[in-house]
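Page header: ASSEMBLY MODEL / five components / 440 residues total.
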Amino acid sequence: MYIGIVVGSVVATRKSDELVGKKLLIVQKVNPKDESLGTLEVAVDSVGAGKGEYVLVTQGEPAMYVFETSTSCIDAAIIGIVDSMEVS
Amino acid sequence: MYIGIVVGSVVATRKSDELVGKKLLIVQKVNPKDESLGTLEVAVDSVGAGKGEYVLVTQGEPAMYVFETSTSCIDAAIIGIVDSMEVS
Amino acid sequence: MYIGIVVGSVVATRKSDELVGKKLLIVQKVNPKDESLGTLEVAVDSVGAGKGEYVLVTQGEPAMYVFETSTSCIDAAIIGIVDSMEVS
Amino acid sequence: MYIGIVVGSVVATRKSDELVGKKLLIVQKVNPKDESLGTLEVAVDSVGAGKGEYVLVTQGEPAMYVFETSTSCIDAAIIGIVDSMEVS
Amino acid sequence: MYIGIVVGSVVATRKSDELVGKKLLIVQKVNPKDESLGTLEVAVDSVGAGKGEYVLVTQGEPAMYVFETSTSCIDAAIIGIVDSMEVS
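Prediction written out in full:
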């Protein structure tokens, strides 16, 4: 998983049925010094994350299993809100 | 998922049965400032996307589940058309 | 999927049973201007591709499903021969 | 798998049920000369790893199978503690 | 799959049960000119590969299926020994 910050959201009317009713958030991966890393990703929220929060993002097939169905087309999901991290 | 813009299409007569009848679109990943990121990808359309549209692309195993069969060889699929995005 | 050009082949006598009888081709990813991108990949052919041809390559778990068995160790497969592409 | 060193940990109160009771460690990939490579990753510990230890990390779907359930949302797991490595 | 050269090995006493009795080899990806590419990877051997040999490595979920169980935590496996390759 990686740690990112929620920086925005996406509106899509025409989309896969699997995405209906789900919040599509835009996440920026960051390092512990809060520097941006890589490019933005659209992740589906599963924990009630909001803009500006630090979140834990899972990618690939594991992201499929975050929601009720195991045949989801979702390849990135927010699975935690980071309260604190300690790195040395 | 990432946000990209549809920039073209591919014609392939000899191909996997799974691809028959499906639209193979070429997608360029972009950032919110509309700058191109990385290399082009060929994604299978599932939402009626057309050239010039901003789309949501899923990759890897989750892309397999976009279509009727769960044993697809598809590793990238367009699963949404982006109406708007808000990033700060 | 990505578009590549078949640039060579690999001979391996000692190998997984899953690979026996299959053609192991070396593919170079290219962009529409025919410039090479990234490093070479060994992909298993499923459509009768030959050297010099432009092909469509799928990667990861979806590549497992290209062949008869769903428990294959194959992580890259050629699933189409590109007749033409149109990019703008 | 890659070899990394455990450099920290993450606290997340609001998170997927799958993560409850699991140790979320921050891992830095390193090369045999102990130089840092790439960005940090959050991996779930399965072997009792602690800070400063060299560990073996698996990624993607294989990480899902490290724990009791096969429908986990975990995409990175520590599956070994490196006693020694020999590279030439 | 990619082609690499076996450059070393890893000893890990404390590890996932899935890894017990398996040879953990360190592989360096190379190109046909024998130049090193990217970072080292730890791959589980399935074909009796030894140090200095050119091997074929599969990654991700397909690597899980190289061994007897389909619930393996292995994300990289050596599935062939390269006798020769021809690239132009």
